[in-house]
C-alpha cells in the first residue's frame, strides 16, 4: 500500500490530506464531486497494482456539522475503532451546544470490549478477591481507556457500568447473604468508596454512582 496508495497520493494529489493504517485509509475532499472523481481514479490505480477497494466498506461520507448543513445519505464512518459522526458539542467559552463532527469509541469496538469482559466470567470467580479481579482486568481497562478515551471519554461510561454490573454479580455469588441486585450494588459501592483507586475505571469515572 505504500507504493500503490501513499506515494501515488503524494505525487498525484498533494493538495488532499489523507491518512492510512494498514489497508484502511481516509482522504479528505472539498466536495462530493471531487470525492467521486478521486474514487474512480483510485479504483483504476489499485487495479493497476493488482488490488481493489472493498466493495461495501468504501464510501463517500459527508462530514455534517453546524457549518456543513447539506444533506447526504452517509454522515457516519468508522476508522481504527472510532466512529466519526455529527454530535452535540459544548462550546468551551460559553457552554452553548452546537453540532460538531467528532470521534468517539465505535459501537463495534464497544461490543468487542463488552464481549471480552463477559467472556472472563467474572461472577464465577468466587474464590478470588476483589483485588485479584482488579489485577486481572486493570491492564485491559487501562489500555482501552488510554486509547478510546482520547476523544469523548464520557462515552466509555457505558463500559464502566457494564464492568460494575459484572462485579455486582460477583458479589452476589460470593456472598450468599447478599440477595438481589440492589443490595449487591450497595455493597459494591461501599467497597469502591473504600478503595476508589482499585480499578482503572473507578479512578477515571468515580465511585459515587453505579448502574
Protein topology:
Layout: H1 2-12, E1 18-21, E2 24-27, H2 32-48, E3 77-79, E4 82-90, E5 97-105, H3 107-119, H4 130-148, H5 157-174, H6 181-194, H7 200-205
Antiparallel strand pairs: 1-2, 3-4, 4-5
Helix pairs in contact: 3-5, 5-6
Structure, explained:
Strand 3 and strand 4 (about 80-90) form a beta hairpin. The protein has helices at about 1-10, 30-50, 105-120, 130-150, 155-175, 180-195, 200-205; strands at about 20, 25, 75-80, 80-90, 95-105. About 45% of the residues lie in helices and about 15% in strands. The protein is built from seven helices and five strands, in the order H-E-E-H-E-E-E-H-H-H-H-H. Helix 3 packs parallel to helix 5 and helix 5 crosses helix 6 (about 180-195). It has about 210 residues and is an alpha+beta fold.
Count of separate DSSP helical elements: 7
Write down the oligomeric state: single chain
The arrangement of helices and strands along the chain is: HEEHEEEHHHHH
How many β strands by DSSP?
5
Strand content: 5-15%
Structural class: alpha+beta
Task: Give the biggest beta sheet.
Answer: 3 strands, antiparallel
| Principal-axes shape call | elongated
Average pLDDT over all residues = 93
Helical content class: 40-55%
Rg, please?
Answer: 23 Å
Short description:
This protein has 7 helices and 5 strands. It has 211 residues and is α+β, with helices and mostly antiparallel strands.
Salient structural properties:
5 strands, alpha+beta, three-stranded antiparallel β-sheet, two-stranded antiparallel sheet, elongated, 211 residues
